[in-house]
Amino acid sequence: MKTLRRDGFVFDAVRNRGYRIRATPERLSLPYLQCLLPGPATEDRLVFFNRTESTNRDAERLLGEGRNTPFIVLSRRQTKGRGRLGRAWHSSDEGNLYASFAFRPKVPPERMQRFTLWTGVSICRCIEEETGLSPRIKWPNDILCGTLKIGGILTEARVNADQILEMVLGIGLNINSAPSLWASPLCTEATSLREALQGKQDINRLTCAIITSLFDAYDAFMNDGYRTALNSLWEKYDLLRGRNVTAQQGKETISGRALGIDEEGRLLIATKEAAANPVRLNAGDVTLNRSRELSPSDRETI
Description:
alpha+beta; BirA Bifunctional Protein, domain 2; SH3 type barrels; 2 domains; globular
């Protein structure tokens, strides 16, 4: 009981009957997660920290030590969280989700791009089902509410010429943060589910839903049973489709209208110079052009 209370549970004593749970933890709780998650192998699959430098680094280390996959590394806080292109990920707030999923997929390296996109739309669908909120994904890995970022995905892998030997999928999701307390410019560029829904969310139940969703997504990916769903879900959650964007790919800058993705997960951009033959991006940093006035339908979509 003392351990559970320290973890954030609140109990009422009922005479001659025992105890009743009055409140559950507002931060990630390993005992609560183990109760909520299905399956007997929960303890083998969960690695839990109160604080760590980076869950992705922990997952990479555990893979190197030979730990059986799949497994998940969770932490209440990160001190050196990172995103794409070596950027820092603000992750000191205990009210958010910082998780890394570790796999040994043994599939061709070119499939990693589609896996990142597939997990992105799977997370969007899960958030919508659990909260009623309809997030959007900005190619390739940002999750937004309106025009503000609520989450991101970082996929890293160890590959040889033929296979992805090990893969780590890192997720950061702002759940119960108060954006007003963040430093500028973060407070004007990002938000949290709590802010969007005007109320605290049950972080443990949402975390369990996301874990279950991503394990299901991984199974579908490995069985090659995801392609039709990826196309339809990407069209539903795509933030960029039909909008003017600018993409930075190395030293090259590409501006045009986003047309969605192709069968390999590459972003299609129709430029003025070659509208009928869109540019296909494997990677890059993409931003929305804000120069034009958004139509009412645009506003509803984003």
